[in-house]
Predict the structure.
Amino acid sequence: MPVNEICYMNATELARRIKSGELSAKEVMEAHLSRIELVNPKVNAIVTFLPDEAIKGAEAADAALA
């Protein structure tokens, strides 16, 4: 699934797709991290960027759902 499609889904749709197994929390996080890396240099909205911790949290969420 394209990154932009994931990034523009609302939270309800993301939750539904994660719950159904269509997407993983890690895939969603990776999509958003990619978008942040693309846009943040221009807007400087994210001051503290911790992608490794974010991926670990997504992996933990996936494990909890499994």
